[in-house]
Amino acid sequence: MHSPILRYCAALALLSAHVCCQDAPAKNHSATTSFTRGSKEAKLSPDQEHGLRLLRAAEAEAAGLEPDMRAFVIWRVAHAYTRVDPRKTDKLSVDAFAATQAIHDPPEGDYCVAVGSAGDIKSWIQQQVLYEMVHKDKPDEVEPLLPQATAPVRDQITSELVRYYESKKDLSRAEALLSQLADSDRYPFGPAADLISALGPEQSGERTAVFNQALSNYEQHAKQSSFGGDDIGTFIERTWKSVHPSLALEAIGKVLEAAKDQQSESRYSMSSAKGSVVLNSGYDLRLFQLLPVLQELDKDKAEALLRERSEVAEQLKTYPNGMQSLRGDNASVSFGVTDGGHSLAGPVAQQQVEAQLQDRIKEILKKADTDPAVALASALGLPVHGGFQGSPRANALLQIAEKTTKKKPSVSKSALDEVSGLQDQLTPKEIPDVGKLPELYLALGDTEGAKKALKILISAAGKLYEHDQDADDPNRSFKGAWPSTDLWRKCVQEAAKISPILPEEIIAELPDPEIAAFEKVAYGAALAGGTGMDATILIADCRKNGVASYRVSF
Length: 554
What we know:
The protein is mainly alpha-helical. The protein has a domain at about 170-340. Helices cover about 60% and strands about 10% of the residues. The protein contains 25 helices and seven strands. It has helices spanning about 5-25, 45-60, 65-80, 85-100, 120-135, 140, 150-165, 170-180, 190-200, 205-220, 230-240, 245-260, 280-295, 300-310, 310-320, 325, 345-365, 370-380, 390-405, 410-420, 435-445, 445-470, 485-500, 500-510, 515-530; strands at about 35, 40-45, 265-270, 275-280, 335-340, 535-545, 545-554. The strands form three sheets. Strands 4-3-5 form a three-stranded antiparallel sheet, with helices on both faces. A two-stranded antiparallel sheet has the order 1-2. Strands 6-7 form a two-stranded antiparallel ribbon. Helix 7 packs antiparallel against helix 8. The longest helix is centred in the middle third of the chain and has 23 residues, at about 345-365.
């Protein structure tokens, strides 16, 4: 960042520290302030007053930040008001959207700034604001803002509006919005299939029009198409019975022809709770997906294709309904791809090991309901490393601690102590797992344990910060969404539950004034009560070898 930003953040640190010192809640301070929520007047506690002063200061001073930081801080402040003043949340969310207009568009082709990631903070904030407005039943306020959004966000939110109007049975409006995406390379095949399903048999003309629109879009962008849960193949699977058989056959033929033309050395895997399938090409994957439909429409053609591709035929013996067999009762299907010459056996085997590990953890947690001590002993036998989603042992111990807080506090405390002892063994990827430690100690009434756990978190956040700043391979995501920033946020919010002094001490010692600015908002939010499941953020770690991300609530 430029030096003026650093000077601003340092000034903000002094300003907020001054506010904290002047306004720190005292035990004998019982005065309250009222505010209006809708038609009801509510009283604010001294802590809430303190938090709101911090938030107002951050909001007022955000104008001095660079555009990306300004939009992000305003958005964070907006959600801090969620519980105390929802109307303020709505206003500031729109202000955050407006602030994104000054952010430069990210360079094309950089995987660190993919839309929806924390790299493209401009699109990310716009997407969050507009998505929330849609789901607050405010579509009429969303549509006027769409022209100001980035092109990818316009397409994504238009797709969301299609889903919204479908759910409200306003099918003509949904169809009109869908037609705006007819030429988009992000055509929403899932909502299009939903719309066809929602249209009744008497609306066969509209069904056919939507089907043709989706097929035409696929033909335009076939070379850029990918496999996934809502692709053209799934669209055909879901809608072929709703259109004339000749049209469904035409669609299958075009998809198979395009897949054959795009033959490569890649191999594909699909896996779910029902099993896994590995195929040698995208064409084979499409056959596996669409042959069950083709058998219903043209059995001779289907059998001829099966004779040509014996591997697909073998897979269909095990999974006769193709992808539907893998989905089962709404089971999710994950897709994998690897370049030619690289075996999929390793990744598939790894997925199976992970699935077995998750099943083992589920059994241990089930045991915690009937015999907590045995569950604890079993959890200690889990590996510290090796889970796709963090440390298996730490995750299991934390869940046991949470389940046994009331009925077996001694087991809960033992589990927490064991997690505390793992801190030095955890990798940067696994460190965020320990974020609930102070909260769980407090649930046991163990304030001293919570303080010790907080020190562990602060130390862990420092390690993450060093990793985020790695000179050889730094995290190129937006700093407000770094794993270290997020863990310090948890530190500040958990510290606020222990003592009003601790958050200020943590913020004052942060090595980065920009992150300190974010954490003051977190502290204000904790005091004001605007925390919890009110908003989510995508925490991202983008390196030379790819991107890792996860969502958290705050």
